């Protein structure tokens, strides 16, 4: 089965860092023609507001359009895995390389995920002579991926907010 969506409606670039994610809406530009980019950090337990889930909330959510074809390009400076099980998505990435996934989520809602350390073990199998014991060599499982699939109006409102913040 071919994983390439020939004409995705939206392309998002996800960049895994040691403790957070950076997202780029590549198809949409701000007023100065820069891609809309933002960082997404896990909210510390001490800063959570009432009703938010511990270790599952982020300060900036990825908001994407439901009922459309999406391409997510994943890269990282550390061993990383962009993993959102409730969307049926898992994409391992090796530092300095690009990987991509194509999805189409039909239901609006909130989908949680996180970087899994599985990428470290996969790479260790490919290169058994290398060691990945240093914390800077792997992306820890604590960086949360919070994806919200929304309707067209909410999606455009989100893009407008990002453009103003840029």
What would your notes on this structure say?
By secondary structure, the protein is mainly β. The chain has a single domain, classed as Immunoglobulin-like, CATH 2.60.40.420. The protein has helices at residues 118-126, 152-165; strands at residues 10-16, 20-29, 35-41, 62-65, 70-76, 80-84, 89-93, 99-103, 109-114, 144-150. The strands form 3 sheets. A 5-stranded mixed β-sheet has the order 3-2-1-5-8, covered by helices on one side.
Considering DSSP H and I runs of 4 or more, what fraction of the residues is helical? 10-25%
Total helical segments: 2
Whole-Å distance between the termini? Answer: 39 Å
Strand order, largest beta sheet: 3-2-1-5-8
CATH topology: Immunoglobulin-like
CATH class: Mainly Beta
Elements, N to C (H/E): EEEEEEEEEHEH
Under the CATH scheme, the architecture is: Sandwich
Low-confidence stretches: 131-142
Shape: globular
Averaged pLDDT: 76
- Taken together, the total number of domains comes to 1
Beta-strand residue percentage = 35-45%
- Give the CATH superfamily: Cupredoxins -  blue copper proteins
Classification by helices and strands? mainly beta
According to DSSP, the number of beta strands is: 10
Return Rg in Å: 16 Å
* Main beta-sheet annotation: 5 strands, mixed
């Amino acid at each position: 089965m071919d994983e390439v969506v020939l004409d995705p409606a939206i392309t998002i670039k996800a960049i895994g860092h040691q403790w957070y994610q950076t997202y780029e809406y590549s198809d949409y530009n701000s007023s100065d023609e820069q891609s809309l980019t933002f960082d997404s950090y896990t909210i510390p337990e001490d800063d959570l507001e009432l009703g938010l889930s511990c270790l599952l909330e982020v300060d900036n959510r990825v908001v994407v359009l439901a009922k459309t074809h999406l391409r997510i390009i994943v890269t990282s400076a550390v061993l990383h895995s962009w993993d959102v099980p409730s969307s049926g998505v898992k994409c391992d990435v090796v530092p300095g390389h690009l990987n991509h996934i194509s999805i189409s989520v039909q239901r609006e809602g909130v989908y949680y995920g996180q970087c899994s350390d599985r990428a470290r073990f996969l790479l260790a199998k490919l290169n058994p002579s290398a060691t990945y014991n240093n914390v800077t060599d792997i992306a820890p499982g604590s960086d949360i991926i919070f994806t919200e699939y929304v309707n067209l109006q909410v999606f455009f409102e989100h893009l407008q907010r990002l453009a103003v913040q840029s």
